[in-house]
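G., the chain you wanted modeled:
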Amino acid sequence: MKRSIIITDLTRFSAGKPTVCIAGIDPKTGECIRPMPYLPFIECERLKMLPGGILVGDFTPTPDRTAPHLEDSRHKDLKFGGACSSAEFRQVLDGSCFASLEEGFECGFESGERLLPPDQKVQRSIITLQVQPTDIEIVENTYKPGGIQLNFTDGSGRRRRFFPITDLGFYDYAQRHRESGALDALNEQIAKQETVYLRIGLTRLWRNPNGKEGFWMQANGIYTFPTVLRYIRSYPEKAPTKS
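Predicted structure as tokens:
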């Protein structure tokens, strides 16, 4: 079925993978759609895919999709439909908001936990949280030197720590601040904004080296208003190749 979605998630994978995970919201229905299979960098550049861009195409639910990734949809005839306005982008984020991780993913979490058990019945894999700009902190990854992570407090009042940042554009922007020793300045910039929206997504089923298995939470999108804190260019000069 031909539909238009506003891109809300442009998610990076680990180094060496030449694809990007895209997700967007149909502004007419509020439905979140994740085009599958994942798109290569070169196709994302051709379609001018950036957050707030309008992606037009035929989207059909994948026949083998399973919870929590019920947004998965086959795609064809993708076209760029221009950019939405700041007000339209904010409206689709507002419409997909939940007060907390517990409300959005319909289960309880221990403080500091970001793992959803594999047997947990959840009907979505991406949610939006609106958080106070002063409750956001970009920090160095203490376990992987050279990386960055996100700490934040959601509407439950609980502090959430060490979320991987997979937002492609924001990651590049924040990483440059880390490399120049200016993370404090970046956090000050964020604190001065009116509001911040987080797109929190779940990975595919994965077992970490310690044997813990489930769907892991990550920051798919970080959007500040009224100032957009990210580089406009979100793709590498050259698409990476697999090692």
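Confidence is low (pLDDT under 50) at residues 237-243.

Shout if anything looks off.
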